[in-house]
Amino acid sequence: MSILTREQGRRTVKFMADYRDVYRRSLADPETFWLKAARAVDWVTPPSRALDDSAAPLYRWFPDGELNTAYNCLDRHVATGRGGQTALIWDSAMTGQVRRFTYEQLQDQVARFAGGLRSLGVGVGDRVVIYMPMVPEAVIAMLACARIGAIHSVVFGGFAPRELAARIDDAAPKAIVAASCGLEPNRTVEYRPIIDQALSLSRHRPDVIVMLQRDQGVARMDERDVDWFELMSTASPADPVPMKATDPLYILYTSGTTGRPKGIVRDTGGHAVALAWSMLNVYDIAPGEVWWTASDVGWVVGHSYIVYAPLLIGATTVLYEGKPVGTPDAGAFWRVVAEHGVVTLFTAPTALRAIKRVDPDGTLIGDLKTFRALYLAGERLDPDTYHWASERLGVPVVDHWWQTETGWPIAANPRGLEPLPTKPGSATVPLPGWDVQIQNDGAITLKLPLPPGSLPTLWHDDERYIREYLTRHPGHYLTGDGGYLDDDGYLYVMGRTDDVINVAGHRLSTGTMETVLAAHPAVAECAVIGVSDQVKGQVPLGLVVLKAGADITPARLADDLIHAVRREIGPVAAFRDVAIVPALPKTRSGKILRRSMRALADGREEPMPSTIEDPSVLENLRPVLRPDPS
Ligand code: COA
Ligand code: AMP
């Protein structure tokens, strides 16, 4: 039986159906499944087919469709009578400000900024780096790029100049759109010096920097720079440009196992279709409802679920500038939920752990009348935090698993389709479109093709995409995570199998940290491992072997290395722990056994690798990697 549920928005039809049936149909006949889902989006040229597999293993979705994402996020809602509805609520715990934008107002601002960018020479296919904190102008800049077919690349504010430089060189932007500063609880982060340093390190030069001057810190302007407000006051609004569904919408860089970040490409059509589908079928959100993702626009969660998905379906999205604790207290999240009538909150487990540590009894939670569900991702939701949140909040708590590459969840409890029983520790079930398989070595892979919304490739680097993701298990995408499926088909994601760690929900490369440590003159060799942390999930630990005769105290070396990582990668790396060790465990051929150290740190008793040169070296690290809690 198929019935229309609640208010679904124009042409969006949701079928109440058994999850298993929908899942099976999505894999058996993706063509029909996704063409039907595509009806939730307004097309300039509707697609006549869904999947283009002519260049497999590279796939494209909706190859002959044309649309504009900003139009779908804004104009179509204004055209159908939602112009007066609030589209965006900016709530800044850092400044005490709240600003609301209706769909009409946001459309006007976006069209104006799009016109401004165009007047600066930015056009279809040009890249724009957006380096901004959690201010509404970041959302406006992203949507303005989408409106004129420019490809945005947002860079998270917690990265150091070198990381920004790497992204500038890879994306080669025509313009940088920046704010003068970001606000952290203990300091104001001035962006201008970071941009200046990044540009002194990068080969590429953008034509122009558009600067949003914030009251909390005014940036120096160069002659060629443009002030955000001046640009807005003179710009003529730009109309949305029809884009091919396969055109890139944005590039978002994420950490790989090497020092070079990966430029994840998101296409236009598949992205819009998948996100719209997920809001209704996974998150159970309808147009007009208030949705809040407490993340950062610099991460994929922010791209998909602060900006694009809620606006695509005509919901109200909250943009929060602040922290879960300390701005001013551990009741900040619950204040935002109560004050703005939030129905569903999406954040990272680490935020909940931070709140729980300060307010274990949940005394600051209050009466959350509108609150319906809590979604958590970015790292595994540990059962303790799951139970704490469920008991204190009294709403379903959903762990769901995804990655920058996939753009939307791979596994979740599909509450919009059919709420399933929860198993603490499991991300519930694979979602329609994702053929999740477990390989013999425990690696989680996704059988190709990946569904719409997932990455088509890496920016200008098909070859690296194929090499790093599609080669290990031919016909499959390698997620980099390990885990298992239980007899009921529930997925348990147990952690990365490569050199990527998740620190407070932030994805970081230990390989990049090792490169920084290895550059120190006293360091002979080193390894960086993620070790468990009660709040952040994991934190990096640097293990270093000194060069013979190195004349440096342990305290001085630790200080040098901590500062170096902060300077080269950024404060977000949260690198604070260094241990000097006599040796690192290696194979007989001299390869450092990082996997064995990771297993020891995670408390997994793995057999000693047969290739190990000296088992006692690994055994001696036990107290460092897994200190006795007493
Ligand atoms: N710009 C500049 N610096 C930033 C930053 C930003 N956008 N975000 C974080 N930093 C800095 C912090 O100020 C801190 O600097 P410090 O070493 O001078 O104190 C450092 O990076 C580490 O930050 P973080 O790991 O966030 O630790 P924290 O102790 O400040 O806060 C939490 C801990 C749990 C409260 C916080 O990490 C949090 O809210 N996490 C949620 C993560 C999230 O939303 N992830 C997205 C995936 S869903
Ligand atoms: P990112 O690309 O920054 O979103 O990080 C993706 C990685 O975060 C995944 O590969 C996982 O290692 C981890 N991750 C995200 N969500 C979950 C989850 N629900 N359970 C376990 N790990 C997760």
From TrEMBL:
Chain segments carrying region Disordered: 602-630
Domain spans labelled AMP-dependent synthetase/ligase: 77-441
GO molecular-function term, one example from the UniProt record: propionate-CoA ligase activity
Record domain AMP-binding enzyme C-terminal: where: 513-591
Domain Acetyl-coenzyme A synthetase N-terminal: from-to ranges: 19-73
Stored Pfam families: ACAS_N (PF16177), AMP-binding (PF00501), AMP-binding_C (PF13193)
InterPro entries found in the cross-reference section: ACAS_N, AMP-bd_C, AMP-bd_C_sf, AMP-binding_CS, AMP-dep_synth/lig_dom, ANL_N_sf
Gene3D superfamilies listed in its UniProt record: 3.30.300.30, N-terminal domain of ligase-like
Family note: Belongs to the ATP-dependent AMP-binding enzyme family.
NCBIfam families registered for this protein in UniProt: PRK00174.1 (NF001208)
UniProt-recorded name of the protein: Propionyl-CoA synthetase
Organism ancestry: Bacteria, Bacillati, Actinomycetota, Actinomycetes, Streptosporangiales
